[in-house]
Design a protein that fits this description.
With 869 residues, this protein is α/β, with parallel strands linked by helices. The protein has 28 helices and 27 strands. The strands form five sheets. The protein has a seven-stranded mixed β-sheet, sandwiched between helices.
Length: 869
């Protein structure tokens, strides 16, 4: 039943009118010093924030749920709401309540969503917060990514597989797409993203081009190199449209748009990013490659490292430039230490300058910008003086923006408050009127102290004090002990339990003077601060470039530190088709070894002519998977420009790394382990090239033994005999039958991870050696895991029986039937049967050494009669 609007209070009528415009968002409604939520929003808010849910009257319309918090706590509470996946509309008072006699005018000033946020409490320092827009065209898909907190704006287009790779790599926190393509989106990208849909009219080429050219103030998008990506441009236009819809119109910090150049970066499909645990892991408490490599000194450096990990280079020149710079920084330790001392002081310059563009920067942050520019000048001097060509290029592009820095130094107090409304932001000597009013304000307060002293002496009230409140301004407070000494001309305003409060004409006069001055001071400070912020915004582009240069230098210094600390070596990269790693180590596992434990290194040699595919057999838990993963990670680290955990590494450029490592059930989507495994493997086989590196672990284990062996065999054959590509492949398997492939395929070689058997014990040596392995030692692993001894003994019996039958030429099916029959016979003699217990006791009491043949026959007859009873 519809509510009767006439029965609602004017405030609730105003609230409902605004709420109707933002139906999917929580509306934070400013009332005085509080942000309030009503109705269903209040129930949700109270639950998410853990605050009290109350009710308030709504005129004759009854009661309504209410939950609120003080306006100065907005940042803390807002972050919790957005992290909970809520869209939050912030509705502020648009006029001063003192200036109106009717209800205060209100309106939404900002709509914060998971993908459109720049609040420090919402964002993760070390990763970007991307908003994505996806446009489904007839033949391809366009995607655009924007981080409003840094101004980074990217665009790409391609087939569904490529766009899926982009989405998995960049992990946007919110995705906008066409309302009528929801099913397509779910089918291609799943339900893991927070999504929002828009009407079709926003997804048009003309509208997108007009929106983008107007924003960048250009005639065409050719200058950005994206003009040919029309499908991607539509997605980019939608992002700017969405920002406008969410009340974000101050976007000076979005200064350019870049194409995601697929051909510049190594192909890592989403399975590889996940399987190698590059930046995240499905396992709790797992350590990722990013965790091990991240020794950056700034948040923007950490974010750039994150990008470099998921987007390794595949062009030789830029890789060698990065490696050369790391080598120079390793060799020049003193310079590295000095550079780091300055870089650590710069902070998150990238997000700070974005806040200037958004007009959301606080006084304390502007002071940090001033400090950052000072340290950038020092970094520029050091890099210029180094004489190193790579550092020289960085020095050329660093701009200390001296005029802005000097302006900030001159116009801001050295240690201003975090919020402008707190006052004392603009320095003395900048504005004559401001200085005059400050004298009145502070002088007036000094005069109040004089009044207090004078009146205390005149009245003989030693405890007399002057104070202020918002109800009746400045007042004199007298305890009841002395109230008979109060002069008759004082006007009493309030009686308390222990005291009374009075005002005098003189106090009122000074109050008006002081309060008038304070109000004007705030107005002038706000005006001057906004002018200062506007002038700083003219330097957004050079400061953004500074941030990018410092981030690069930060990552290079991080790589240099890692090289020294973790004993990494400089890899040799070339365009030959050979991968030769000597003494390779897994960068993550070696950091998790117990103190004093040494990592067992391994050599891996792969090429396209003699040793294209290595079949690795060996026991479970022996380290087959670690060898596969470390090979992939070493190649990836080298092509990021990082030194690698090895004694030496020569790497022919790899254009794609594919992995099929470990079981990854997707049962929630109705897919079995085997189905997931086959999907991932199909993706590999359909995309291989001559320069690919393929890491396959236990292919086919999700199905029956014969099916598994057949599939694994066929995959190895396919990779060996492919007409146009000879991808370098490591193939770990527990199917020892695959060792036979080496007899017929010239470029397949057998290796195994060696073990040492001492009595009944097996010691894993974790060393890769030539030749196949015949055992998997699975029972030994079960014993290590703590399986019951009886179970282990029985498993050994079954294994021996199966192995004997196999040497005698029996099929595995017949062997298993015999084992089952044996198990059935054993089951017949379950020892908890009382008859069998009696028979067991009889047999235990027999002395076989003195038993005659006749006595033995009699005993057997007795046992037989017991069984037949």
């Amino acid at each position: 039943m519809a509510k009767d609007k006439t029965k609602e209070t004017p405030l609730m009528q105003q609230y409902n009118a605004i709420k109707a415009k933002y139906p999917g968002a929580l509306l934070l409604f400013r009332v005085g010093d509080f942000y309030e939520t009503f109705g269903e929003d209040a129930v949700k808010t109270a639950q998410i924030l853990g605050i009290v849910l109350t009710r308030r009257g709504n005129g004759p319309g009854g009661h309504i749920e209410l939950a609120g918090f003080p306006h100065h706590s907005l940042e803390n509470y807002l972050s919790k709401l957005v992290r909970a996946g809520q869209r939050v509309a912030i509705c502020d008072q648009l006029e001063d309540p003192k200036t109106t006699k009717t209800i205060v005018k209100r309106g939404v000033t900002e709509l914060v969503t998971p993908g459109v946020a720049y609040n420090d409490n919402i964002l993760s320092q070390k990763s970007n917060n991307y908003l994505a827009a996806i446009y489904f065209d007839k033949n391809q898909i366009g995607v655009s990514l924007l981080d409003i907190s840094t101004g980074e704006f990217l665009v790409a287009q391609g087939n569904a597989e490529y766009i899926d790779k982009v989405m998995q790599g960049f992990k946007p926190t919110e995705v906008v797409f066409q309302k009528n393509r929801r099913l397509d989106f779910l089918e291609l990208f799943g339900d893991k993203f927070y999504t929002y849909t828009l009407d079709d009219w926003a997804f048009t080429t003309d509208y997108a081009n007009e929106t983008l050219t107007k924003h960048f103030e250009v005639a065409s998008l050719k200058g950005f190199g994206v003009d040919k990506l029309q499908t991607g441009i539509v997605a980019a236009g939608v992002i700017l449209h969405y920002l406008n819809e969410t009340e974000h119109r101050n976007l000076k910090h979005i200064t350019s748009i870049s194409r995601l150049e697929e051909d510049r970066f190594m192909w890592l499909d989403r399975f590889t990013v996940r399987n190698l645990e590059l930046v995240s892991s499905a396992n709790d408490n797992a350590v990722t490659l990013f965790d091990v490599l991240d020794e950056t000194s700034t948040p923007m450096g950490a974010r750039l490292l994150h990008k470099w990990i998921i987007m390794p280079l595949k062009e030789l020149k830029p890789i060698q430039e990065r490696l050369g710079m790391v080598e120079y920084l390793v060799a020049n330790e003193d310079l590295s230490v000095e550079l780091l001392s300055h870089i650590k002081q710069i902070g998150d310059l990238e997000r700070l300058i974005s806040k200037v563009g958004l007009l959301k920067v606080g006084p304390r942050e502007l002071c940090q910008l001033k400090r950052a520019l000072h340290h950038i000048e020092e970094v520029k001097k050091l890099t210029e003086a180094s004489g190193n060509p790579f550092l020289g290029l960085i020095a050329e592009q660093l701009n200390p923006c001296l005029s802005i820095r000097e302006k900030l130094e001159r116009e801001l107090f050295p240690d201003p408050p975090a919020l402008l409304i707190k006052g004392n932001v603009i320095a003395d000597g900048i504005d004559e009127e401001l200085d005059r009013l400050r004298k009145i304000s502070y002088g007036g307060k000094d005069y109040l102290i004089e009044i207090q002293k004078r009146e205390a002496a005149a009245t003989g009230i030693p405890s007399l004090k002057i104070a202020f409140n918002n109800v009746f301004g400045y007042y004199l407070e007298v305890t009841h002990t002395h109230k008979d000494k109060v002069p008759s001309e004082w006007l009493r305003k309030q009686t308390l339990v222990n005291a009374e409060r009075y005002i005098t004409p003189e106090l009122k006069e000074y109050e008006e003077q002081i309060l008038g001055a304070e109000e004007k001071i705030q107005e002038i400070e706000v005006r001057l601060y906004n002018e200062l912020m506007y002038q700083v915004s003219t330097c957004i582009k050079p400061i953004q470039l500074n941030a990018y240069m410092i981030a690069q230098l930060d990552v290079m210094l991080c790589f240099a530190q890692l090289a020294v600390k973790n004993h990494y070596v400089k890899p040799v990269l070339n365009t030959k088709k050979v991968l030769d790693i000597k003494g390779g180590r897994h960068p993550v596992i070696e950091k998790r070894l117990a103190a004093g434990e040494e990592y067992i290194t391994n050599d891996v040699l792969l090429d396209n002519n003699t040793q294209q595919i290595i079949i690795i057999t060996g026991p479970n838990m022996s380290g087959k998977s670690a060898i596969l993963r470390q090979t992939g990670l070493i190649v990836l680290m080298a092509q990021m420009g990082c030194f690698v955990p090895a004694k030496a590494a020569t790497i022919g450029l790899v254009d794609k790394i594919f992995t099929r490592v470990g079981a990854s059930d997707n049962l929630s989507s109705g897919e079995s382990t085997f189905m997931v495994e086959m999907n991932e493997t199909a993706s590999i086989l359909n995309n291989i090239s001559d320069n690919s590196l393929i890491l396959l672990d236990e292919i086919g284990r999700g199905t029956s033994t014969y099916d598994g062996i057949s599939i694994a065999w066929a995959i190895a054959e396919f990779l060996h005999t492919h007409p146009s590509a000879k991808p370098k492949t490591l193939f770990a398997t527990h199917y020892h039958e695959l060792n036979e492939l080496a007899n017929t395929m010239a470029r397949i070689k057998n290796f195994n991870v060696s073990v040492k058997e001492i009595g009944n014990k097996v010691i894993f040596l974790r060393k890769l050696v030539p030749g196949g392995s015949e055992h998997s030692f699975g029972i030994h692993v079960a014993k290590m895991a703590g399986m019951p001894p009886k179970l282990i003994a029985r498993a050994n019996e079954i294994l021996k029986k199966l192995e004997i039958d196999r040497t005698e030429g029996q099929s595995i099916k017949d062997s298993i039937k015999k084992v089952q029959n044996q198990a059935y016979q054993l089951h017949m003699f379950a020892v908890d049967d009382p008859v069998l217990v009696k028979i067991r006791d009889m047999l235990n009491n027999l002395d076989v050494n003195v038993l005659t043949p006749v006595e033995a026959l009699l005993k057997l007859d007795e046992i037989q009669r017991l069984i037949k009873q």
